[in-house]
Amino acid sequence: MKKSASPQKFITVSSLSILLSMMTVVFGAPLLRVLRQAYGPWAFWILGLLVTGAAWLLNAQPLAMFIGSVWMTLGAYNELEQKGLGWWLSGILSVLLGTGAASISLYGAFKVNGINTYAEVQKLVEQFTEQVQKMNPAVKLDASVLMQQIPSAIAITLILALGVGLIFERRVFSWLNLPREKIASQLKLLEYRVPDVFIWVAMTAFLLTMVSFGGKAIAILAVNIVNVALVLYFFQGLAVLEVFLNSIRAGTVTRVLVYIILVGQLVLILSIVGLIDYWLDFRSRIRKMTAPKAS
């Protein structure tokens, strides 16, 4: 059957991407990747503006912020990828643009709702933490700490959306029977590796969270960098896990169980595996162990 990007499929992709973005923020990302690649930049950006604008006008500013920033991140990454930029630089720039869009939306939402001072923002966060603790008394949240980590929380959300989009886009293309363009600079997910130089940034930031040096501002910056680093190395750990599962020819049931346990419950372990992979290169070792020996 010939693969074609029909208007009916455009409605399907658009509707599902909007619905999943509204419900989960990140799981509409694969469909957004498909939407941009199959139907071009004009359809992608115009639809993004309409959806974000509609959410804002309907007084759903938080929803507009999340959808708009994810849309910006996925779209910017695709535009930079099309121009031949490497995946790492494209990722950094697109997440920065998405974070900028989220920051502008957040500032606008505060202004619209009459929140003009830091104290008012802090009071809003305190109300949020109180509501969370009422719903789940076991959760302990500190409003001031939460406020300090808002930048990394935004960046992490966008990185997760981008990661989910890249991981699952091929399956969505196949499911919808849509043509998929291959790009030379496209990231090979099983080869995903955080650039070596970043290990020193992450380790320095971690050290600064443990010792008092340079004042409170440096400590807050360090914590935010560590938070982002954990997510970046989580994806590297995920790539190691996938290579291992491929090497043992794991079936569907085994994969589902492993992902439920590791991704659902032990996320930090995958981040640590990804970090250690810098020194041990697990994937090369796994491939050497499973490579057929010459007779």
Core attributes:
295 residues; mainly alpha; Arp2/3 complex 21 kDa subunit ARPC3; 2 domains; globular
Plain-language structure description:
The chain is mainly alpha-helical. It folds into 2 domains: 1-181, Arp2/3 complex 21 kDa subunit ARPC3 (Orthogonal Bundle), CATH 1.10.1760; 190-289, no CATH class. 77% of the residues lie in helices and 0% in strands. The chain is built from 12 helices and no strands. It has helices at 7-24, 29-57, 61-82, 87-112, 118-135, 143-148, 150-176, 198-210, 216-247, 252-265, 267-280, 282-290. Helix 8 (198-210) crosses helix 9 and helix 9 packs across helix 11 (267-280). The longest helix has 32 residues, at 216-247. It is globular and about 65 Å long. The model has no long low-confidence stretch (mean pLDDT 86).
